[in-house]
Amino acid sequence: MSGPGADVAEVRAWVRAARRLVVFTGAGVSAESGIPTFRDALTGLWARFDPEQLATEAAFRANPAMVWRWYAERRAAIARAQPNAAHRAIAALERGGARLAVVTQNIDGLHARAGSREVLELHGNIMRARCLEGCGDPERIDAKFDWRADPREPPPCPRCGSPLRPDVVWFGELLPQDVLARAQRAALRCDLMLVVGTSALVHPAAGLPMLAREAGARIVVVNPDRTPLDAVAAGVLRGAAGAVLPELFEKPG
Ligand code: APR
Fold first, then answer.
1. Per-residue pLDDT tens over the stretch 158-178
2. For residue 89, which of 24, 102, 149, 245 is within the disulfide window of CB 3.0 to 4.6 Å?
3. How many angstroms is it from 27 CA to the middle of ligand 1?
4. Residues 213-242: pLDDT tens digits?
5. Beta strand pairing status for 21-25 and 192-196?
6. What is the pLDDT confidence band of residue 116, given thresholds at 50, 70 and 90?
7. pLDDT for 252 beyond 80
8. What is the atom index within ligand 1 of the atom nearest the CA of 225?
């Protein structure tokens, strides 16, 4: 299971000794919940699309019904999915008293559903919506409405009647600056960052592990495949998150 650098026993000791721990996750942590990674999500009807043709404001304005339907299908799949052993192990570690922040690129909400409390969602959450024209409070309105309503059309904003849009970060959009600032602060203050299930290619999120490392933290990668961070990691644990994390976090015998 271990790649270059420290092995699982050493990393387990680092986890136990960490004063502040950040678990930085991407789509791979939800793969064992059956949720396709972002790029795999373009299967079936959507296979002929490029993500940038669907996950942009321009695409939504040009064809709100089509983009809304793609998100409605993904939302339905996510609602049926369950947190997996990786999400549960992270939540259990936090409950056990670790000073732990989860910083995720995922929009599926599974960390919170597994019981994690300190979760920073850099790319938003597919179960939330906000007004396309940004009316009302400057950030977002978490419109509480029945997603199961007509999944073919975006519902109107309850305040101004403009279409609602998924409260996720689309290509070319800024990340929620308050969330990013909290994630950067967590990266600068942690002494260990576990980088789990991300290709670490999409910035600014992918810059967080290097920020932590430059501030003196150890970086440990958990991924069945290679990533650009392997070369700078203090440890690389080659394996699926659902197998590696429960073993990594298990209490001493
Ligand atoms: N356990 C751990 N890692 C896994 C598993 C698993 N079971 N299965 C796959 N992986 C790894 C893959 O090897 C890959 O490195 O998860 C990573 C998934 O990479 P991406 O699909 O690129 O997802 P992510 O890194 O989260 O993408 C970042 O890019 O597409 C945008 O906004 C989107 O949030 C997304 C961002």
1. 888 899 999 999 999 999 999
2. 245
3. 4
4. 999 999 999 999 999 999 999 999 999 999
5. parallel
6. very high
7. no
8. 13
CATH of the domain at 151: 3.30.1600.10
Q: Where are the beta strands (DSSP E) in 64-180?
A: 100-104, 119-121, 124-131, 164-168
Domain count, the chain: 2
Q: Is 118 helix (H, G, I), strand (E, B) or coil?
A: coil
Give the residue among 28, 52, 40 at the shortest CA–CA distance from 199. 28
Asked whether residue 44 falls in the same domain as residue 30, the answer is: no
Is the same domain home to 28 and 49?
no
- Do 203 and 137 reside in the same domain of the chain? no
The residues lining ligand 1, judged by C-beta closer than 6 Å to any ligand atom, are 26-28, 31-32, 37-39, 105, 123, 197-199, 202, 223-225, 227, 240-241
Question: Containing domain of residue 239, as a range?
Answer: 1-34+83-123+175-253
Mutate which of 42, 105, 168 for ligand 1? The one with the most ligand atoms within 8 Å of its CB, which is 105
Claim to verify: residue 150 and residue 249 sit in the same structural domain: no
The neighbour count for residue 208, using CB atoms within 10 Å, is 28
